[in-house]
Structures are given as C-alpha cells and as structure tokens.
From TrEMBL:
<keyword id="KW-0732">Signal</keyword>
<dbReference type="InterPro" id="IPR000566">
    <property type="entry name" value="Lipocln_cytosolic_FA-bd_dom"/>
</dbReference>
<feature type="domain" description="Lipocalin/cytosolic fatty-acid binding">
    <location>
        <begin position="105"/>
        <end position="162"/>
    </location>
</feature>
<dbReference type="Pfam" id="PF08212">
    <property type="entry name" value="Lipocalin_2"/>
</dbReference>
<feature type="signal peptide">
    <location>
        <begin position="1"/>
        <end position="22"/>
    </location>
</feature>
<dbReference type="InterPro" id="IPR012674">
    <property type="entry name" value="Calycin"/>
</dbReference>
<protein>
    <submittedName>
        <fullName>Apolipoprotein D and lipocalin family protein</fullName>
    </submittedName>
</protein>
Length: 165
C-alpha cells in the first residue's frame, strides 16, 4: 500500500523531498504532496483557521491585488488591520511561493481540499506551519477529522495541533 501511494505521488508530480525543520511539526522524511484537485478560482475567498499548530493566524484569504494574487493572513477574525498581505507566485498545482516587501519568504502548499471546497489543509515541505481551513467557523466535523488525517498522512505530528475550533 505504501509503495502504491508513493508511486502515485511521484506520478502526479507533487512530491518533493522536504528540508529539515527545527520546529518538529512534521517528519521531514515523509513525502508531502499538493492536491491535484486544487482550483485557484474555487479556492479564492475567506477561510477560517479551524485548527493549527499555534502560529496565531485566525483567517486566511486568497485575494487579487494590483500586483497579482496574494494570501492575506490575519491574526484576528475579521482582519480589522487588513492582515499581513503575502504576494503569491504560483509554483505549480496548489503550490505557492509567498513573499513580503521586506524579503521574508515562505512556501504555502494546498495539501487537500474537499470536493465542495468547504474545508482545506495547507502547509509546506519544511513543516513550519500547517492549518486546517474551513469556510465556516463551526460545523463540518467529518471534514475536519478528514483534514487531520491528511496532516498525519503528510507527516505532521497532529498531537501538536491546538484545540479544534
């Protein structure tokens, strides 16, 4: 079974060796892959962070700016300050290189999204963050449980997740 999953990930072109990470949120020897179901038009809009590894982000949105696509990461629901705007350059199916004006960079990969684009999992190969996103602040317990399984499958230590919201 593991060999079949590994071969499928390679064929999809989504697997990558992960660099080491000091935070220890994921096993960097585990393969990680962006979802082939990703569709930027359906992903666009506001998402609520339903569970995370404690990085303080409460809301995520894929938005269009005059400089192109960007992810808006907000520390508070509703983003009264507008949130932090990370310019996004698509690197492949569901994979983005994010950057700030000060030169700070981070990768963001969409690891999974349900067929209705109501729940998603994002993270990156370094494993320095991982979020379970949902279009709603409550409900969808079955999708949230599936999202936790996706994080586990991609090598994340789900025991370090915060309390589901």
């Amino acid at each position: 079974m593991k060999r079949a999953l590994w071969a499928l990930a390679l064929l999809a072109g989504c697997s990558a060796p992960a660099p080491e990470t000091a935070k220890g949120l994921r096993d960097t020897k585990a393969l990680i892959g962006a979802t082939s179901r990703y569709d930027a038009a359906r992903f666009k809009g506001a998402w609520v962070v339903r569970d995370s590894f404690g990085d303080g982000v409460a809301q995520v949105a894929l938005v269009e700016t005059t400089k192109g696509p960007a992810f808006q990461l907000c520390a508070q629901t509703g983003c009264p300050d507008g949130g932090t705007l990370w310019l996004a350059q698509q690197q492949g199916q569901g994979r983005y290189a994010l950057s700030l004006a000060d030169g700070t960079t981070r990768a963001l990969w969409v690891l999974w999204v349900d067929e209705g684009f109501r729940t998603a999992v994002v993270g990156n190969p370094a494993g320095d963050f991982g979020w379970i996103l949902d279009r709603s602040a409550t409900g969808g317990a079955d999708r949230i449980a599936a999202a936790r399984e996706i994080l586990d499958f991609n090598g994340y230590d789900t025991g370090q997740l915060g309390m589901p919201r």
